[in-house]
Design goal:
four-stranded parallel β-sheet; single chain; alpha/beta; five-stranded parallel β-sheet; TIM Barrel; 16 helices; 478 residues
């Protein structure tokens, strides 16, 4: 729909940016932090990059918050590292870990920046894995409950916006890549048990937040990739729906309605899958009413019919940022994903599609009528300082401008959006590509191989974003 006026953003809109502990903090061996599986993964698995120093935010947090203030932030989304709070199975929280997050939160609050905190962003403590078999064993449910309750008790007086588990759908869907899957041969069935356990952890976090945090609000953070149909062929439309179900809708329906949909129950029945739902589980779900959705959205996908006799193809991610390496999946009889002629692609073959942002917000609002905070969105690129020691990241400015404009249009369409927090504030380790794929508004002077001086250098996008957010979304630059 065409709107005559330019978008207006609500007063008190939360303008900020986003990060995750294991990708930005470093200091993995300091102040009593325990080992996380992601540390081991990041050291061994290429092209992951060693996270022991990352952007060294642990030691630079004051400088980083000062830069956020200078930029005009009113929010900052970050995650707490579970192994920093509970490094081992003693049941005793690590005082130094709590102190670090208290310092960070105080620094934010004192600078007028609303903290938005993710409880779990991929950093599984090694002891939880060894003792309970990680997400595979129900023992994690109480351990996670103990951890989140400690967070609510220690930080809930100042943190009002909480996010439960980052991209649970992607942790299941990309289980092999993100480390959730331990036994590839049985993952097709195991994933639903693992997912059910994650759902219980999510639900208990929602319940505990409402019990313990005065005025606290909590929501999940699905990784959203809206799916278009390749053509008007009705079979492509069904393929689109199938793709959407298996990559995101199963999860969103569950969070919002607090029960499994007929679609997934039917799938389990047909494939002889037992997700191990036990007595009492549904009672827990019934109490876990979420307050909002965090939305991570970078791109769109396009689906087409995959005939039952088409050869299957696994998703092959583009690992090195050389265009054309990604292979889209073919799931015979269900759907296939295809390239879209109407959009451009990044070096990692991610669709550059601002309209997807409006589409996702509209669609989620129609389905669930819950407010949303954009918790991730951004442009990953190869970058280094130019001869003047600067980063003139015009592509990122164009990307952000177009995406934010579409957020504004969605608001004009009647969608309730509370804030926009792109990925990321400073450069940080990309999930799979370390510093080779940068997202920040602020450059971190290091590469994967050379630590240089870890200086913070504002990119052109920092100045552009600062003007936009200080004018509450009015000054778009030329
Ligand atoms: C999101 C994750 O899926 O995408 C982040 O929550 C991640 O942790 C971001 O960094 C971008 O992905 P990547 O692989 O480019 O780092």
């Amino acid at each position: 729909m065409y709107h005559k006026e330019k978008p207006q953003f609500p007063k008190n809109f939360l303008w900020g940016a986003s990060s995750a502990a294991w990708q930005v903090e470093g200091a993995t061996n300091e102040d009593g932090r325990g080992v996380s599986l992601i540390d081991l993964n990041s050291q061994k698995k290429k092209p992951f990059a060693d996270n022991s120093i990352a952007s060294d935010h642990y030691h630079h947090y004051k400088e980083d918050v000062a830069l956020m203030k200078e930029c005009g932030f009113t929010s900052y989304r970050f995650s707490i590292a579970w192994p920093r709070i509970y490094p081992d199975d003693s049941g005793i929280p690590n005082k130094k870990g709590i102190e670090f997050y208290n310092n960070l939160i105080n620094e934010l609050v004192n600078n007028g920046i609303e903290p938005i905190v993710t409880l779990y962003h991929y950093d599984m403590p090694q002891w939880v894995d060894e003792k309970f078999d990680g997400w595979y064993g129900r023992g994690i449910i109480d351990a996670f409950d103990q951890y989140v309750r400690t967070c609510f008790k220690e930080f809930g007086d100042r943190v009002k916006y909480w996010l439960s588990i980052n991209e649970q759908n992607m942790q299941i869907f990309y289980g092999h890549w993100l480390g959730t899957c331990k036994h590839p041969e049985t993952w097709e069935k195991d994933q639903w048990k693992v997912n059910h356990i994650m759902n219980l952890c999510h639900a208990k976090a929602v319940i505990a937040c409402h019990e313990m945090v005065k005025d606290g609000k909590i929501g999940p953070v699905p990784g959203m990739v809206p799916i278009y149909s390749q053509t008007g062929n009705p079979m492509d439309q069904i393929a689109r729906l199938n793709a959407e179900e298996f990559t995101e809708k199963i999860w969103n329906d569950f969070y919002a309605h607090r029960k499994y949909s007929n679609f997934i129950k039917q799938y389990w029945k047909e494939h002889d899958i037992d997700p191990d739902i036990r007595e009492g589980d549904q009672e827990i779900f019934n109490q876990a009413k979420i307050d909002f959705f965090g939305i991570n959205c970078y791109r769109s996908n396009t689906a087409a019919e995959a005939k039952i006799d088409e050869p299957a193809q696994d998703y092959e991610l583009n690992k090195y940022g050389i265009k054309g390496q990604l292979k889209f999946p073919v799931v015979p009889g269900v759907y296939k994903l295809v390239y879209n002629d109407y959009v451009q692609y990044t070096d990692w073959d991610w669709e550059i599609d601002p309209v997807a942002m409006r589409y996702v917000l509209r669609n989620m609002w129609d389905l669930y009528q819950l407010p949303m905070i954009i918790t991730e969105n951004g442009y990953g690129a190869h970058e280094d300082l130019d001869e003047n020691g600067q980063i003139n990241d015009i592509e990122r400015i164009n990307f952000l401008r177009d995406q934010i404009y579409q957020v504004g249009l969605a608001i004009q369409d009647g969608v309730e959006v509370l804030g926009y927090n792109p990925w990321s504030f400073t450069d940080l380790l990309s999930t799979g590509n370390g510093m080779a794929k940068r997202y920040g508004l602020v450059f971190i002077n290091r590469t994967d191989d050379d630590l240089r001086d870890l200086a913070r250098i504002k990119k052109a996008s920092f100045y552009w974003y600062s003007k936009l957010i200080k004018s509450n979304g009015q000054d778009w630059g030329e």
